[in-house]
Every structure is written in structure tokens, then in C-alpha cells.
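Technical note accompanying the year-one report. For the benefit of new consortium partners, we illustrate the data format agreed upon in the data management plan: each record pairs a sequence with a C-alpha cell string. No post-processing was applied to the example shown here.
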Amino acid sequence: MKVVIPGGTGQVGAILDRALTAAGHDVTVLTRRPSKPREVAWDGRAPGPWTDAIDGADVVVNLAGRSVGCRYTPANLQDMMDSRVRSTEAVGEAIARAAVPPRVWLQASTATIYAHRFDAPNDEATGEIGGHEPGVPRYWEYSVRIARNWEAAQLRADTPHTRRVALRTAMVMSPDRGGIFAHMLGMVRLGLGGPVAGGRQYVSWIHDHDFVRAVLLLIEREDLSGPVNLTSPAPLPYRDLMRDLREAWGVPIGLPATAWMAELGAIALRSDTELLLKSRRVTPGRLLDAGFTFDHEHWPSAARDLVGRVRSRA
């Protein structure tokens, strides 16, 4: 299978590239700064020589977009919007022009599109799209707007011969350096892995092995298109997630943090508190309906697996 991954040098792209290559598939990564074999230069904005990689490919998995690991200033939020929408438009144009278009286009989206809520989970059929929740910072709406525009750019593309899927992906947990799991484990190892702002906010997550397996299912299942939630069916409150991670690592105590302490920490890390404080209670309705079974459905066992892999690499 010939697979093209625009924006495939980030954490999630590296997970997918590594797994597909190990399985014997022909993977090409589109990146602004190619430095390795199988990497092709693109700018993420306009067609160019890189479109030759898409013509004749079987699958495109577009993961391009500026990282959310930054301060949510107006300039950075606009850059997040532009990098996601323009790269999606560029990929859509390349597919539309292809003499032999790919049979499926998996397009990154995000579980952040759903409303901040505690009372019930969000699946694809009954979930509430966010943006108008009372009592949350107004700029959180912009993250939802980014997600909506991201998906709309794929829908606008003139690709009648290519099936399209929007991957509403939760936090992908892997032992790779620089990822969200590495950040959380680092907090635990410093004794800072306690609840933040009470810890009631839900965290949606997916183990890296299940992420790859879900992507492969979506490639093969021709009856699946549109938005699909890529997340474990068992989201859990942040305080429970960190407690289970502390137990997996063997640290008995994690200092709690208030919202204002989290804000100071986010400033120091050049990140934003929305990543910590928004309650993302998202479940994978369509994956479950399609018969997908999770190897790592619940967080305690997933945390133990990830911690074991970190220790085996040390």
C-alpha cells in the first residue's frame, strides 16, 4: 500500500510512519524541512512538485498543522487556523488534479471540536459541538472554530473518487519523547502529578497502538466516511488519570495545582491552560459500531504498558 502523510514529522505522524513502514507499506512524508529518505518537501499551502507523490497513492493521511503546544495569542491562533485550513485545501487540490487519485483521504481533526462538558459523553451522533458553553474563557471558542473550518476545508474539496474521513482524534498516548504522555510522566516524576483545578475535567485519550489499528480499519472500511472519533471508550477525570499514572510509575504523591498555578506553569512552558482545563468527554461511537475492539480500552492498564515501554528504553 502506498501511503502519503503530509505533516508526518510530528509525534502522531512519526507513530503512524513507524508502524506502517514496519508493516511493509510504502510511506512518503511531506514536510517543510526534508532531511531523511522518503521525505518530500512541501510548503503546506499550494500545489508544487510534491503533488506527484499523491498522484497514484492509495491513501493520504493529512496531519499537517501548527502544534497546539504554544501560548494562545491572537497571532498563534491565526497561525493554527491558517496552517490547518490551507494545508487541507492544498491536499484537496492535489487529489482533485491527480490522474489516479487515492481511494481514501484521512484528514486530521480534533476531539476539541466538542463542547466542554461533564454530564455526558460526546459521540459523533449525539455529541454537542462546542463554542457557546457558558462559564468558559471566550477564546476557547476559537479552538472549536479552527476545528470546524478544518473539517469544512476537506468537505469543500472536489474529490468525488476519493472517500474522505475526518479524524477527530483525542490525545495520542505514546512513550515518544516530546509527546503529551512524556509531559505528563515528567510532571509525575517531579512530584507534580496531582489534580489541576480540582481535576474534574475529563481527558479523552487513545493508546498509540489502538490509534494505528483504528487508522488501518478506516483505510479498509469503504463504508466509513465523515467524522470519526479516535479515542478510547473510557475517558476519565484528570485527577483519576494522574493518579493511575502515579501508581504505574510508583510515585505515591502528586501535588495539586489551582487554576492560577496552572496558568503560571503554562506561561513557563509556553503552552495554554485550555489543554489542561477543558473537559473533553468524547467516546468513539462509530468505531464501536464498526466492530472495532480496543486493545487498551482502560487507562490504568494503558498507563502500565506505556510506563513499561519508557523504562525498557531507558
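Partners are asked to follow this layout when depositing records. Residues 15 and 31 are 15 Å apart (CA to CA).
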